[in-house]
């Protein structure tokens, strides 16, 4: 076993004030998904857009899948004015949040019937800024813990997960309640959401920039590349090498080529089925007959609260029995969750069944997110934390985003057979579990090596 942490030891980790900052940034990380995900899907549905068109709007989430392409810039580029006052991580977080704020205000002013392209552009800006914000926030979380504090990794993952679901689900419930109020339009809802975004931006000023030896490592690598040639061409080449190539070389050299490829494949496959469900869930709820208020109560508030509770339990399990075992449990629960929604499709809008499905889904979300966040974090080299985490996390989003964009077409192809749709999404979990079993020994060895640092 990697580490046998007692309950009292585990709970003592949460006395660390740095974890509050991680929680606050987790809220900011989850909130953009409300703006361009569930709320946007509900708005488009109420405006009469087809399932296929609503599914296509999900393509903007591809920004989260490819943010590794510009993550080296977040590691290396110092923003004028902001960097000196806030530091590398917080300055990028604030810039991203400002972009999200203005795009949200723009959405509060549009006529969706006549300005659909403008709405799509706003969604793209929010997705791009949100994906950039995630790069900086994830790096902030990894950098916040010292090298000898690896035992707190799952606790940090718990706070990040709880924060994300607070932003996505608990704050995400609010617009659905507001939308059911007399005379309230979705544009009014987005104005309220812009105010929420402005409030979340205050978290940047309360957080403390983490210390890191990142710049020292980067300069040493550049000096090694330049050697005795200090020409402009060589200096540019050194900067590009350390920014783009060195992080990739570091990841493969730390893990070995075969293991690195195996890790990338598993991360890519793990949550594809869940992504199909997530993209069409709001459309399904509305078609099956649930109201906006019911969606807010169960899918937002219910899922959020349940996820936060199970996040702490899942984190304790991962601390005691290992992250890999936690991934196995969450994968099985993922398939069970999708089958519960298949049952709802056959039975109809029965609230008790809806509540049970949300309970299982909340458990799934909590365990899978905590395990995956902690798992990816332990694979990162701190000298390239933004680049490494973005590479791995975006790979996990890649399959989910690209394929989930076709989820509406799949429902249409099945002629609205939601029960069969959710059954298919449950079966999508199997390949990743098989792959996880094949590489489990190597993954457990990596986990053991990671915890030896504490």
TrEMBL record:
UniProt KW keywords: Membrane, Transmembrane, Transmembrane helix, Transport
Domain of life: Bacteria
SUPFAM superfamilies, per database record: MFS general substrate transporter (SSF103473)
GO MF entry, a single one: transmembrane transporter activity
Gene3D superfamilies linked: MFS general substrate transporter like domains
Protein location: Membrane
TM annotation in the entry: 20-43, 49-70, 91-110, 116-136, 156-177, 189-207, 260-285, 297-317, 326-347, 353-377, 389-411, 417-439
CC per GO annotation: membrane
Membrane topology reported for the UniProt record: Multi-pass membrane protein
InterPro entries, sorted: AmpG_permease/AT-1 (IPR004752), MFS (IPR011701), MFS_trans_sf (IPR036259)
Pfam family, one: MFS_1
Name of protein: Major facilitator transporter
Organism, as annotated: Pseudoalteromonas piratica
